[in-house]
Amino acid sequence: MFTHAIVRTPCPDFAKGLTTSTHLGAADYDLMLVQHAAYVDALRGLGLAVDVLPAESSFPDAHFVEDVAVVVPEVAVITNPGASERNGEKETIVSALAKYRTLARIEAPGTLDGGDVLLVNKHFFIGVSDRTNAEGARQLGEIMASHGYTWTPVPVGAGLHFKSSVNWVGGNTLLVTKDFADRKEIEGFDLLVVDKDEEYASNTLLINDTLITPTGFPKTRKMLDGLGRNIVELDMSETRKMDGGLTCLSLRF
Ligand code: CIR
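Above: the input record for the complex with citrulline. Below: its predicted structure, written as tokens.
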């Protein structure tokens, strides 16, 4: 059960963050703040205590707090983010997490973004991507193995992070894009495969028994309805313009 979350208020320059989604238009700060507040409300509505960290004006992507740490009951691992523009963000989360957990770190030459890390029960899938290298994956895997977790590296050939394409929606079910549907690493799971024109919705967030999914993806919503869980929809338009999704905006623990 998650009882806590950490988020960070987006900074006024958030639209200067890294993005490949320029075709979606310029991101709007006022609307981003409204959508971010709705995200925080949704987490609190599900009973989580949410720490809202102040905006970090030197790092326009710093509200994507998921990328700078991986948190389990036993430890919080501060990552070594793979994009040079974002690497300094790792120091901005240390004091917020030190209140709750013993800290460990991913060290260079290892790089790792939390967006590449998917935990399903006690097993970690660790995407090896443009941001996370094999050494970063190995370091995280070994830290987690020392706490009784297992792990598998997964090459991320498509999308920014592994969780841009694959997410756990409870039980034995993963929500995946077509690119990942026949990956041997996820054999044995029941797969819900999102339509090509709804790939963004594969980044759906499981909080205890509730799924938070982005608004505007009716075919994915219908598949999720079949799982019989509580579902909350949130408008993620401004986060999406900056290549982010629902999981990126928080650390849950
Ligand atoms: C970046 O490119 O790093 C940010 N603009 C988006 C990060 C999204 N984070 C995530 O998927 N975990």
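Notes for the reader.
The pocket of citrulline is lined by residues 17-19, 61, 64, 66-67, 83, 86, 115, 160-161, 164, 242-245, 247-248 (CB under 6 Å).
DSSP finds six helices and 15 strands in the chain.
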